[in-house]
Design a protein that fits this description.
Elements lengths: L2 E6 L21 H19 L6 H11 L8 E6 L5 E6 L8 H19 L5 E7 L2 H9 L1 H25 L8 E9 L5 E10 L1 E6 L2 E6 L5 H21 L23 H9 L15 E3 L16 E4 L2 E9 L4 H11 L9 E3 L5 E4 L10 E4 L1 H11 L8 E5 L8 H4 L10 E3 L5 E3 L8 H9 L13 E7 L2 H11 L26
Antiparallel strand pairs: 1-3, 2-3, 2-18, 4-6, 4-11, 5-6, 5-15, 7-8, 9-14, 10-11, 12-13, 13-14, 16-17
Length: 504
């Protein structure tokens, strides 16, 4: 567990000129209140239908309820000058829908990639998305997801090797980092790939490793890459029995009947189609707000270095030049962002949930509307299975590639991870490649958590408080809640009224 939120013990105002860190109370956010109020009702209604959530999904919701809650334990920081103290609560560290932990992971991973993985070279982002049915198969079958990702990487790297061979570098190799995103802009399940590809090749010349940049791909090049991806993916689907040949007389299918689907599978199948899976609105499309009445998904507009073919689409028009470190880190934060943006959540007058889009769809849709239980259903579909890697490294950036040590930025020396004490004992220190929470806040938001808000001194860690009796004693002395929040008991479904206040 690591520091996530803090609470000042002193109500005094910060010193002038010092930026103070004032965290939000997680219990007051709309996402937290919806889960606390309606999760037990969701579980009860599903149990009445004979469907149950898997253990890893239940743990996700239970951990989220305790994220940033001081009653579950905290760290104590104290200023050495004025004795000002600060409490820092622990986080859940889950990777499903927790916006706070997702934001921390986004900042940490972006800093790691830009500092220690991606070399000083041109980087291009290749975004590849897939047909709706294929998204569902990839969500259920991690092996299929890995096979399709390998196809994408081979197609892009194959194009680069071909471009390099024209310049006379036939043995050149490139590298990439791929972030597997499981979400779409409407809180739906939409598995697609964001690949940060080095736009150039490395080759060995004696004891030296040389880099040669490549020209940006043309629109024709991008279309050619997409055609290869589509052709090879369909071939794999046919070989694995997902797609039957036209002349096949077999009516058998590996696709299970609805009654045989697990609850998570049912939620995922509906989410990829922007439909509701459960409740009185089961089978209906997600209600859209601000639309001109055109049904279906937004139309994919082809542009520069963009193409679409048979439900597959590719976008390769975003690139970062070498030495543009700030832009590179910003791009890394974009591809590692969490699935739910809490600032775009809004509660309607009838108790429903409105999720606004960052940009309107081409049909004019500006937001989608859910009942609280429908929104929880969408969160269930977004939770990744355990032990599934969502960040993949390929080519020269692969962990065992012979050129990796010559390509990535210089790593710290091995001895820096251990320091001998005066007694001769070896003590392990924190890996310098991993930034602390305070360092991330300072790097991203220019907020220094270690500065005392009273005197401007330095706050230092003094203790981790996890023992229940000590936690209750300290919080009682401060007049703070000593009992962690719990799920509210199941309630009767509310009467849903018309949701016409959006236009107002």
């Amino acid at each position: 567990m690591f520091p996530q939120a803090d609470l000042s013990l002193s109500p005094r105002a910060p010193v002038g000129g010092t930026t103070a860190y004032r965290p939000r109370d997680p219990t007051q956010t709309l996402l937290y209140r919806v889960i606390q109020d309606y999760f037990k009702s969701f579980v009860r209604d599903r149990a009445e239908e004979g469907r149950f959530l898997p253990a890893h999904v239940i743990r996700e919701f239970e951990s989220f309820l305790g994220c940033g809650i001081l009653a579950n334990g905290f760290m104590r920081l104290k200023c050495g000058s004025c004795r000002h103290e600060k409490l820092v609560a622990f986080s859940c560290k889950r990777r499903g829908f927790c916006s706070s932990c997702g934001s921390r992971r986004m900042s940490e991973q972006a800093a790691f990639l830009s500092d220690w993985v991606l070399p000083v070279a041109p980087i291009r982002q290749w975004v590849v998305s897939f047909p709706i049915q294929l998204r569902y198969w990839m969500a259920r079958d991690s092996r299929l997801l890995g096979n399709i990702l390998a196809i994408v990487i081979r197609a892009v790297m194959g194009f680069q090797r071909k471009s390099a061979s024209v310049l006379g570098f036939k043995s050149g190799e490139s590298g990439s980092v791929t972030l597997v995103q499981r979400f779409g802009g409407s809180a739906n399940l939409n598995i697609h790939f964001h690949t940060l590809m080095i736009e150039g090749v490395y080759h060995e010349e004696g004891e030296r490793t040389l880099f040669h940049a490549l020209k940006a791909p043309s629109n024709e090049d991008v279309r050619g890459v997409l055609a290869q991806i589509q052709k090879r993916v369909v071939r794999v689907l046919k070989r694995r029995g997902y797609v039957l040949e036209r002349n096949s007389e077999s009516n058998e299918s590996e696709y299970p009947e609805e009654a045989e689907l697990l609850l998570t599978d049912l939620c995922q199948a509906a989410s990829v189609q922007n439909r509701i899976a459960l409740g009185e609105n089961a089978g209906q499309r997600v209600r859209k707000l601000g639309s001109f009445g055109i049904d279906g998904e937004p139309i994919f507009q082809e542009g520069s270095r963009c193409a679409s073919l048979g439900g597959f689409s590719i976008h390769a028009n975003t690139a970062v030049e070498a030495n543009e470190k700030d832009r590179l880190e910003k791009l890394c934060r974009y591809v590692t962002r969490p699935p739910i943006a809490e600032m775009r959540l809004q509660e309607s007058k009838d108790g429903g949930i409105i999720y606004r889009f960052k940009k309107p769809w081409s049909d004019g849709t500006q937001a989608v509307y859910f009942t609280p239980q429908e929104f929880i259903e969408k969160l269930v579909a977004l939770i990744p299975p355990p032990r599934i890697h969502l960040t993949r490294f390929h080519g020269v950036l692969g962990p065992h590639h012979r050129l990796r040590s010559h390509v990535v930025p210089q790593q710290p020396e091995e001895k820096s991870a251990e320091t001998p004490s005066e007694a001769g004992e070896v003590k392990k220190t924190r890996d310098p490649r991993r930034l602390s929470w305070s360092e991330l806040l300072k790097r991203v938001f220019q907020i220094d958590l270690t500065i005392c808000p009273d005197c401007g001194g330095t706050l230092k860690f003094i203790a981790t408080i996890q023992e229940r009796s000590v936690v209750e004693q300290i919080l009682s002395h401060l007049g703070l809640p000593t009992e962690p929040p719990t799920f509210h008991p199941p309630r009767s479904p509310p009467q849903v009224a018309l949701w016409d206040e959006f236009s107002a």
